[in-house]
Amino acid sequence: xxxxxxxxxxxxxxxxxxxxxxxxxxxxxxxxxxxxxxxxxxxxxxxxxxxxxxxxxxxxxxxxxxxxxxxxxxxxxxxxxxxxxxxxxxxxxxxxxxxxxxxxxxxxxxxxxxxxxxxxxxxxxxxxxxxxxxxxxxxxxxxxxxxxxxxxxxxxxxxxxxxxxxxxxxxxxxxxxxxxxxxxxxxxxxxxxxxxxxxxxxxxxxxxxxxxxxxxxxxxxxxxxxxxxxxxxxxxxxxxxxxxxxxxxxxxxxxxxxxxxxxxxxxxxxxxxxxxxxxxxxxxxxxxxxxxxxxxxxxxxxxxxxxxxxxxxxxxxxxxxxxxxxxxxxxxxxxxxxxxxxxxxxxxxxxxxxxxxxxxxxxxxxxxxxxxxxxxxxxxxxxxxxxxxxxxxxxxxxxxxxxxxxxxxxxxxxxxxxxxxxxxxxxxxxxxxxxxx
Length: 437
Known about the structure:
Elements (H helix, E strand, L loop, with lengths): L1 H31 L4 E4 L2 E4 L3 H8 L2 H20 L9 H7 L5 H19 L3 H11 L9 H24 L8 H38 L5 H4 L8 E11 L2 E10 L2 E7 L11 E8 L5 E5 L10 E5 L4 E5 L3 H25 L42 E2 L6 E2 L7 E3 L8 E3 L2 H16 L4
Antiparallel strand pairs: 1-2, 3-4, 3-9, 4-5, 5-6, 7-8, 8-9, 10-11, 12-13
Helix pairs in contact: 1-3, 1-7, 2-5, 4-8, 5-7, 5-8, 7-8
């Protein structure tokens, strides 16, 4: 069995190197050397630009150089093969650091396919691809078939080396090198996978950003950040002041954002949503279960509480509710821990005046027909407002003053009820006078 695996390693390397060389000979060199050209009036232009060629083929030529060296060193060993004494993996250990170049190729792979698809929209390039595919040397493989081969190679090494290790005795001269080579190969595979995940994450966030169109100002919201990671999205019902409203929610590792889906008549291209708000998970945010009320039509509720805004959300099922609560809690925990590591010490979001650390959950309009301070009934003349500090429904007479609450993300004073204003003002005066006593 060990002999068979060793030979498979070498023969598969031969086939792989031959395929890469074929791709370079049939596709890369003709495109680069402008053997195929398209006439545009009096000018003769290359089929592809240099940038398009670089995007499609990435560092394939570097890879084939490394793998040619690997094959050149492996081949003599298999010719003079002795299963009990012969080694292969000292060669892998020596060359494995150079295989890290596969990370760059794999990271670029989706961009390569996208660029190729766009190029093939041109009739001249489509003709070149068809004519090249029909050549006997191509073995009925398209350029896409060749391009995916390097992506599959590192996982293939992993499988072959693991199989070789399984069939090699503990006292075999090659045993230690197989273990080292396999560990190094797994590390490269992990890097490749992580690189792919990071790229997919960047593309997902950019896709979300584009879906908001002009309703989001990136310079203000800053959705795209190097550390930011997308976690989950879905539709929830948010209890607004005028009642329950459907909202699309996106959870990241440090923020939660929400918006509304645009009607089909207003959707333009990728712009499918209207952005509402971004909420920070690192400033005292938390989620709290809301038990189902008997006789109530609304079920599967939980409260999301944050410094800038707090509200009640409703999921479609108990399972969905638990999933959202667990995901948000985990994101809050990880974001807070990461922030602690980045800072020497955490300064709370509340100012030194003692304002609320988190925003209150607003009492829905429908649940309070009367002012929650003076008990006056709301009507067309006595309008309903909300205290930004306690969340209660209040009238004009019970909220004549404003107070600055920095945790809401604004420097402007906001409406608070008379009770909260008295409490907040006492705290402010106390903070000012304390150093003097």
